[in-house]
């Protein structure tokens, strides 16, 4: 259904939406690249661009019902891409790549928001995502130690610090 009075996106508006989705993805991917994670700038930039394009295809023509189905399908489908970065290492019960997988999913949502022209959502959610990603595992360990410090317990799965093992770039769930 095409809504009456809704204009087709002009080329500049469409380009801005695609660039915003790509920029949000690149920002998140930059952080993942700095932490030497398996998915980085190119992967996240492409997720942001692709999801912005998918959402903009129908949003620009006033097909709100079609755009909502596209967003639903994108956010469901991108879960499979995220699942591809989650791995288990031999002898380690902890999954690796959960944060990267979550960041891929969030980037898809950012791209969809950009494709739909939801500028404040794109800006606010990108900033919040980056803040969450920059919270290092040392902050999590500090909070855990404060919580369990009075009882003298060692947090589960934290018998040694990830920094003690030079082969481990960080929190197992953050790979």
TrEMBL record:
Residues 18-141 form the MgtC/SapB/SrpB/YhiD N-terminal domain. The chain crosses the membrane at residues 12-31, 43-64, 70-87, 117-135. The keyword Membrane applies. Keywords: Cell inner membrane, Cell membrane, Membrane, Transmembrane, Transmembrane helix. It is a multi-pass membrane protein. GO terms for cellular component: plasma membrane. InterPro entries: MgtC/SapB/SrpB/YhiD_fam (IPR003416), MgtC_SapB_SrpB_YhiD_N (IPR049177). Belongs to the MgtC/SapB family. This is Protein MgtC. The lineage of its organism: Bacteria, Pseudomonadati, Pseudomonadota, Alphaproteobacteria, Hyphomicrobiales.
